[in-house]
Amino acid sequence: MTGLILHPKRAGLLRALRALLTPKEAWCKGAYARTAGGHSVSSSDESARSFCIIGGINRITEGVDETVRGSLTSILSRAIESICGDHSIPRFNDSATHEEVLSVIDTVIEHVES
């Protein structure tokens, strides 16, 4: 993740993503978002209560310029690739533990804030 320059707004969005996914029940696998009953829904659906990484990014960037969403996705993809050798955020999310997901987000936040 060398040479990474991230605008402070994006760093704040990474912290928001971390906060959104911190409660274990707020994180999911196999769908962008799920209702409290476990049904797959859009990350923008008002009934969504848990999110995968991509769903969380979509949720926190609603109404934000599309390039911001793209840059968050890109930096997380690069971090995941450097840690586990695969750049696919959905594959990582669906095979990782909750703690591993939070650890990757923490690593990116530490890197951009140092």
How many DSSP helices? 5
**How many β-strand stretches?**
3
Order of helices and strands: HEEEHHHH
* Shape estimate: globular
Low-confidence stretches: 1-5
Strand content bin: 5-15%
Average of pLDDT: 90
End-to-end separation? 12 Å
Q: Which percent range fits the helix content?
A: 55-70%
Number of domains: 1
Radius of gyration: 13 Å
For the biggest sheet, the summary is: 3 strands, antiparallel
Spatial order of the strands in the main sheet? 2-1-3
Give the class from helix and strand content and strand pairing: mainly alpha
Structure in words:
By secondary structure, the chain is mainly alpha-helical. It has one domain. It has a 3-stranded antiparallel β-sheet with strand order 2-1-3, covered by helices on one side. The longest helix has 19 residues. The relative contact order is 0.19.
Provide a brief overview of the structure:
The model is unreliable at 1-5 (pLDDT under 50). It is built from five helices and three strands.
Keywords:
single chain; 5 helices; 56% helix; disordered N terminus; globular; three-stranded antiparallel beta sheet; 114 residues; 8% strand; 3 strands; mainly alpha
